[in-house]
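tRNA threonylcarbamoyl adenosine modification protein YeaZ
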Amino acid sequence: MDLLAIETSGEIASVALQRGDTVWERRLQGYARHAEHVLPAVQAVLEEAGLAVGQLSAIAFGAGPGAFTGLRLACAVAQGLAMPWSLPLVPVGSLEALAAQAGEGTVLALADARMGQCYHAWFRCCGGRIEALAAAGVDAPEALFPPAGVGPWHVIGQGMEPLWPRLPEAIRAGAVEIVLDATVQSRDLLPLARRMLAEGRALPPWEVAPYYVRDKVALTAEEQAALRQRRVQAS
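Structure:
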């Protein structure tokens, strides 16, 4: 299987191509570089693998939640590459990709959503399979709570160091392992995308869309003032 993966939702974007056991990868530092350099990075890994776009088995992309512009970029690039060849696309959830790095058991995956909030989702990871225990959401850290009936859990977060103290004690006390500075790169999408392909969960290019979770992208002046006040009180 020849699988291309594109991830542009974070500060460090990347593309990766897997052929057999070999993975070629390019990373791009800084949001401003993503749109300009993602296609040349795709071309570079294709050339290293000796492949053309039409020879790919499928294209995976980081579908979110995450930075809105980055999610739209990854989706649009994947669609643009896939449509002329009717290649299947595999939208991989960013929180699911985080959870896959945490090991076996119950996992709380978190990511900084800005505006004083975090994206969150609970998963059960077992034998390489990842089962969502609840739909992903976006809330103030104080509003999070564990699902009923779950035991100790792993916590893995992206950009969560500043927000961790705001999570309820019930969340923090139940964690047996805590990683708050994890990242999701294109190579992290590959094993999840392969499993999704095997399970028939790929989609035609015209049916995919980013998974935003949150529709609101900016705070009002009053909300910004309230957020600043909470930060002062927490410091």
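Residues 217-221 have pLDDT under 50 and may be disordered.
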